[in-house]
Write a structure and sequence with these properties.
Length: 60
């Protein structure tokens, strides 16, 4: 059956109607901030760059 009830991406609770909920699609503004924080954390999690390997020159 179609799920017409919008749910909060953060806590999965019904987020209500967008016209009545300024934090839509989140249930509350708090959940919106939580999701934003998680998003930024993901952004900061960049894959570790391989350290530049400097070949030691052999001084003759
Ligand atoms: Zn929520």
């Amino acid at each position: 059956m179609p799920d017409l009830q919008p749910t909060c991406p953060t806590c999965r609770r019904p987020s209500g109607a967008p016209s009545e909920n300024p934090a839509f699609p989140f249930c509350t503004d708090r959940c919106r901030l939580v999701d934003l924080g998680a998003w930024f954390n993901e952004e900061y999690r960049v894959p570790g760059k391989p350290a530049p390997t400097t070949q030691e020159e052999d001084p003759d």
